[in-house]
Structures are given as structure tokens and as C-alpha cells.
Write a structure and sequence with these properties.
59% of the residues lie in helices and 11% in strands. It has 727 residues and is an alpha+beta fold.
Length: 727
């Protein structure tokens, strides 16, 4: 219903309610007024006259009450006379317009009520869905917020457990480690390396001779005297192989004896695998002489066992050469710095940090510890030996042919110790030690290399980033009462008192300007600069940001790389502009750090060195470098920061170059060792399964000497390639 209709109805109701006493109007006048016709002469006051508050109408209005009663609207504007309700029913049935208006109003009210109910229902549903959505979002946000915390807690626990495990292992091993003199150890290990090099060449010649005797009967192109032909004369042929085997044992007696010594002490190792393979080959040779009829098996695996001995000797030769170079680096250094792999539980980060080497014996102890390959061999060797014995028993006694045990045991033990496992560490360590010696550093072995490989952040001081000679004075501008020479002297006094490399550069520049040396006292390090007294004047030396925070207006320096400002008694005295020039080695070191996906933690007291400056000067990505507050910098530079950690490497030179060279070489060595161990373990276990199946099926034709030799050499090729990456 529109507003116009509502207004007319109300007006009509007021008209009915404001009817005067019946005594003033007759019935016809009332009906005429209601129908809109011109009434007869009015006999009373206008409709909008003052309401009459009198007694109810007399009996003259009685005929009106004879009409059907009609309920009228309640009074709104004024009180109606008692006779008015009797008049309304008289007109309402005769007015179709009022009835239509009333019906329309009722229908509209009903429609409006239904629409309001629907709107309320929809609103309630929307609010319910919105509440559910908000609840789900809150749950999702809570889970997302809890996930990093959970992940961080798990990561922290893993790192802490790893650190605790390493500390326990080191504490257990310290009892069996004897610290050696560096200079004497250098000569001893160099002599051992050279001796093993010569002896290993002899063993290689014996392996070649044994291979020729073993393969010649199968290749008619190879000339071979019939007297040593295994097919024609098995006794002399096998006897010749046994002689070669015994000679190889005598040459490599240290490897052979160490293998059985560790076995008898319950600590089988790689040398044990080689020694057992040699003995198994000898027993197999004797069994062929005693029991010549073994279903097609005619040639023992002497050539393969001698080749394994050669590989073990080359591994030890590489280790001795690497240790000799490491001892040489320690013996020749006047001052040593240690590189630590430190887990910072406050910042939850694995960091590589430099620090003083409190005790030289700590690093020498790390050099003598069992490396990663040795510790792995203590797990793999017992497993391989146990599987070799079980497979040999099943394929011989299990088939009712006990004589075949020696053949089965010899063939399985040969493939159980791949050459890649035997040469997993020595060659790479030798290459790394040679490179580090040229860079002025030494690494403490594969275990510490693996620890350094987990580095997430590298702690760098200002001397690492900008060593001596890389800071140059560009200009001095006096803006106060002090002259340029005085400004330079005061700035040099403050920076030199703080022990900054900047102080050395400013002092040299002051001497070049014939400035008198001054001394600063009451020095304080603030965020962005230094404060102190030079003479009787209160001086402040700092960056533009510090000046702005102090409310000092500074001139714009657009052409300079770095600008410092000097305040004298709270007045701007001068501006010093500098150039920080990255050296070639430092630039390469920072780029190397980026390639290794490590971040830099700037522990610089030089207020001019900031993460943004480092990223800009070394062309690094944004966010590469981070810098803690002055308290955090002091904590990182504390000599006791990594105290308690074993030194992973030592440095004989300052700067980021040797530091990053150690991290790079450690990463290469650890990666090479891990890859070699993975490939070799697979080759050993897979080879044992294949040989066991062939022996069990009595496939002697599938297991000649050349096949086993080829298997060993094929799996050594990737290990050789990996070790070459350490050059």
C-alpha cells in the first residue's frame, strides 16, 4: 500500500471520529458528508472543531444503532463523541473504495510480514554460515600458527639430539686417542704415504699377473705356457696363483693383520672384509686342489682378492698423505684460528664461526678420530660377513654339497666389499688437504666435514668483509669551527679506541695529512656510531641515521659511498666520506657462500657495515645478510661463543677467502663420501644377492673370475668420478 492511500484512510478515520454530536446534524447530512456529496446547509461547526466532551448522545441517534455494528479504528488524534461509532457502520458498506483500501492494506501487511520473516530467516542462515566460516578460518589459522612452532620444536630437538650424540661419541673416543706432535707426525705420515705408494704399485702388478693367469685360459688370444695353464695343469696353475696371493699378503701385511686384529676384538672393519676375502680365496684354491671335481668350477678368485688388497692400500695411502698435509699446516702456522660448527640454541641455527684455538691438541685429537667411513664400516662389515656365511651355508649345505661352501663363500665375500667402499674417503681427503694447505687451512676429517656441511649461517666480522687496505678516505668537509685535520684526528681517535679496522684506515690517513694523534676516552658504542671525549670536547662519530635520531640536520652526500658525521659538543663539525672496496678474494668468497645457499650473519662493530651495504657491494640478493643488535654482535664476537665445540678446521690466514674455502671443501668431501658409501653399499648388498642366487642354482659358468672383476670395476667408476670432483 502506498503512502497516499494510508494518508486518505487516516483522514477518513479522523473524519469519522471527529463527528460532532448528533444533535447538530441530521442523518442525511452525515451520509452526504461521508459519500463526498455537498451536504445540505450545515447545522453545526466544522469537522475540525474542538471535540465535544459531553454525555453520550440522546435517543435521537437510536436509529443509527439499528444498523449492523461496524468496528472502527481506535482514536488517534482526538476523542470521538459517543454517537460517532454508530454513524460509521452506516457508510462503510456503501464505500467500496474504503473496503479495497482496507483489503489492500491487510494483504500488504501480510506480504510484508512474510517478506520480513524470509529476510530474517536468510539473515540468520547467512550469520550461521559466516560464523561457521569464521570458525573454520580460526581453526585453520591456529593450525598454521602451530605448525611452524611444531616444526621448529622438532627441528630443534633433532639438532640438539645430534649435538648430544656427537658429544657422547667424542667423549667415548677420547680415551683411545693419543695426541701426536704436529711436526713429527707430518714426517711420519709422509713417510708412510710414500711407502704405501710404492708397495701398492707392487700389489697392483701382482693383481695384474694373477688376472692374466686366470683369464688366459678363457681367451685364446692371450699366450700362456701350458705349465701354468689351470685347465691343462691345475695344480701348477692354482699353485702359481697361491704364490702371488702370499706375496701380496706379505707386501700388505699391515692391512691383513689389522683386519683380523679388529675381527678378534669384535670390531670388524673394511680391512676385515678384505682379509676374510683373501682367506676365502686361499681356502677355495686349496679345495680345488683337494676336490678338483666341483661342477665346472676351476679357477679361484685370487686376482679379485689381490685387487681388493691394492684398493685398501691406496685408500690408506691417501689418508696418510692427507693427514701429513694437515699436520704440516698446523706445524708451520704461527697463529691458528679455529673453525667451529656451532649450534646456536638461542637463534636455532647451525653456524660456522671462527674463533681462537684455545688448545692445539683439540684439533690434533680430531685428526686422530675415526672418520665417517670407519664408523659406517663398523656397521656394514658385520652385516656383510654374517650374510656371506649364511648365504654360503644355504647354497652348499642346504643343497647337500658341503664342498661347494668354499666356492660360495669366496665369491660372496668378493662382491661384499666393493672397491668403491674401500676407496670411499682416502682419495678425496688427499685432494681436499692439498687444496686447503695452499689456502692456509686444514680440515679434521670426514666427520667434521659432515658437520660443516650442515651450516646454515656463516658468522663474518668486518675484517672478513673488508680486510686491511680495503677502506679508503675520499674526502673531508668541515662545516663547523674545526678544520679538516682536526676532524680527521678526532674521528681516528674514536674509531681506533673502539678497535675497528676503520680506525686503522683513519689513522693512516691522519698521518698522511700530518695530523697530530689524539686519544679518546669514555668511549661508548651506540647504535650507528661512537661517542666519547677527545680532549675536553664531547664527540659523536656516526652515520646519517644516528644524526637524524639526534635531531641534527645533515647535508646530503650523493656522490660518496659511505658518509660519516662528526659532532663536536653537539654541533655538526664535519663530514668524512669513505670508500669500502671489496677485495677480489672476498668477493669470490661471498659469491661462493651464495652458491652454497648459506646466509651471512654480520658481526661487525663498524657502524658503516650493514646488511644492505654488504648486499649492494657484493651483488647479493636482498635478505642474504643479517645483523643482530650490538648486544648480539658482542655475543657472536665473544671468544667463548663456540667454546666446548670441537674445532672442525684450522686457519692460518685471516679473511673470508680461507674461511669459505674450508666450508666449500668440507661440503665437497662430505658429499663425495656420502655418495660413495651409498653406491658401494647398494653394490655390495645387490652383488651378494645375485651371487647367492647363481651359486644356489649351481651356475658356475655365470661366475668366472672376469665377471667378478668386471663387477668390482664397474661399481668403482662412479666412485672414481665423484672423488675427482674434490680436486
Amino acid at each position: 500500500m502506498d503512502k497516499k492511500d494510508e494518508f486518505n484512510l487516516d483522514e477518513f478515520k479522523d473524519l469519522l471520529n471527529d463527528v460532532p454530536d448528533a444533535g447538530d446534524f441530521d442523518l442525511e447530512s452525515i451520509i452526504a458528508e461521508v459519500e463526498g456529496r455537498a451536504p445540505a446547509e450545515p447545522k453545526a461547526e466544522p469537522v475540525h472543531s474542538k471535540p465535544v466532551h459531553s454525555e453520550p448522545a440522546p435517543a435521537a441517534a437510536e436509529p443509527v444503532r439499528e444498523q449492523p455494528p461496524v468496528k472502527t479504528a481506535p482514536k488517534t488524534k482526538s476523542k470521538a463523541a459517543p454517537a460517532a461509532p454508530a454513524a460509521a457502520p452506516e457508510a462503510e458498506p456503501e464505500d467500496p473504495r474504503a473496503a479495497r483500501i482496507a483489503a489492500r492494506e491487510a494483504k500488504a501487511a501480510e506480504h510484508e510480514q512474510k517478506a520480513a520473516e524470509k529476510r530474517a530467516e536468510k539473515r540468520a542462515k547467512r550469520e550461521e554460515k559466516l560464523a561457521e566460516r569464521e570458525e573454520k578460518q580460526a581453526e585453520k589459522a591456529a593450525k598454521a600458527a602451530a605448525a611452524p612452532q611444531k616444526e621448529k620444536a622438532e627441528r630443534v630437538s633433532r639438532k640438539q639430539a645430534r649435538a648430544a650424540r656427537i658429544a657422547a661419541e667424542q667423549e667415548e673416543e677420547n680415551e683411545d686417542i693419543e695426541v701426536l706432535d704436529p711436526d713429527q707426525s707430518f714426517r711420519v705420515f709422509r713417510r708412510r704415504s710414500r711407502g704405501l705408494n710404492a708397495r701398492s704399485i707392487l700389489v697392483l702388478l701382482l693383481a695384474a699377473a694373477a688376472a692374466y693367469l686366470s683369464l688366459a685360459p678363457s681367451f685364446t688370444q692371450l699366450p700362456l705356457p701350458s705349465v701354468v695353464d689351470i685347465v691343462v695343469n691345475p695344480t701348477l696353475g692354482i699353485g702359481s696363483l697361491l704364490v702371488l696371493q702370499i706375496l701380496a699378503i706379505l707386501i700388505g701385511v699391515d692391512i691383513f693383520s689389522l683386519g683380523f686384529s679388529e675381527l678378534f676384538h669384535g670390531r670388524p672393519c673394511r680391512e676385515t672384509l678384505v682379509s676374510v676375502a683373501i682367506v676365502a680365496a686361499i681356502l677355495h684354491s686349496v679345495s680345488l686342489l683337494v676336490f678338483p671335481e666341483q661342477n665346472g668350477v676351476t679357477t679361484p678368485y685370487i686376482a679379485a682378492s689381490i685387487l681388493m688388497l691394492y684398493a685398501m692400500m691406496r685408500e690408506d695411502r691417501g689418508r696418510y698423505a692427507a693427514r701429513a698435509r694437515s699436520y704440516k699446516a698446523v706445524a708451520q702456522a704461527d697463529r691458528l684460528l679455529a673453525v667451529y660448527s656451532h649450534y646456536d640454541d638461542i637463534d636455532d641455527a647451525c653456524r660456522a664461526a671462527k674463533g681462537p684455538l684455545f688448545n692445539k691438541n683439540d684439533f690434533l685429537t680430531e685428526l686422530e678420530r675415526p672418520d665417517t667411513v670407519d664408523r659406517f664400516s663398523m656397521i656394514y662389515a658385520p652385516l656383510a660377513l654374517a650374510l656371506s656365511i649364511i648365504f654360503a651355508l644355504v647354497s652348499s649345505l642346504g643343497r647337500g654339497e658341503p664342498v661347494r661352501f668354499f666356492w660360495a663363500f669366496s665369491s660372496i665375500t668378493i662382491v661384499a666389499a666393493p672397491i668403491g667402499l674401500l676407496c670411499a674417503f682416502g682419495a678425496g681427503y688427499k685432494n681436499i688437504a692439498r687444496r686447503l694447505l695452499a689456502s692456509g687451512a686444514a680440515l679434521a676429517g670426514a666427520r667434521q666435514a659432515n658437520l660443516l656441511r650442515g651450516t646454515e649461517e656463516v658468522v663474518l666480522a668486518e675484517n672478513d668483509l673488508f680486510p686491511t687496505g680495503s677502506i679508503e678516505l675520499e674526502s673531508i668537509k668541515a662545516v663547523g669551527q674545526l678544520d679538516e685535520t682536526r676532524i680527521l684526528s678526532c674521528a681516528a681517535a674514536l674509531a681506533d679506541a673502539a678497535g675497528l679496522e676503520l680506525g686503522r684506515a683513519l689513522s693512516e690517513a691522519a698521518r698522511a695529512h700530518s695530523a697530530l694523534p689524539l686519544t679518546a676516552h669514555d668511549l661508548r658504542v651506540v647504535d650507528g656510531g661512537l661517542t666519547g671525549h677527545v680532549g675536553s670536547s664531547y664527540m659523536v662519530l656516526g652515520t646519517g641515521a644516528l644524526m637524524v635520531n639526534m635531531g641534527v640536520t645533515i647535508p646530503a652526500e650523493r656522490d660518496s659511498q659511505v658518509a660519516m658525521y662528526l659532532l663536536a659538543d653537539n654541533q655538526l663539525a664535519g663530514v668524512i666520506t669513505l670508500h669500502y672496496l671489496p677485495t677480489k678474494n672476498t668477493y669470490k668468497a661471498m659469491r661462493l657462500m651464495r652458491r652454497m645457499h648459506m646466509n651471512a650473519v654480520i658481526a661487525a662493530r663498524d657502524f658503516n657495515v650493514s646488511p644492505a651495504m654488504v648486499e649492494e657491494e657484493f651483488d647479493l640478493r636482498r635478505g642474504f645478510a643479517d645483523q643482530p643488535d650490538p648486544a648480539g654482535v658482542a655475543r657472536l664476537l665473544d671468544p667463548r661463543y663456540a667454546k666446548g665445540d670441537a674445532p672442525a678446521a684450522v686457519l692460518t690466514r685471516e679473511g673470508a677467502g680461507p674461511f669459505m674455502q674450508v666450508l666449500r671443501c668440507a661440503d665437497k668431501l662430505a658429499g663425495a663420501v656420502r655418495s660413495a658409501l651409498t653406491l658401494s653399499t647398494f653394490a655390495g648388498l645387490f652383488g651378494m644377492l645375485i651371487v647367492f642366487y647363481l651359486v644356489f642354482q649351481n651356475q658356475a659358468a655365470a661366475l668366472p673370475v672376469q665377471h667378478l672383476l668386471l663387477y668390482l670395476l664397474i661399481w668403482y667408476i662412479p666412485v672414481f668420478v665423484i672423488n675427482q670432483q674434490t680436486h
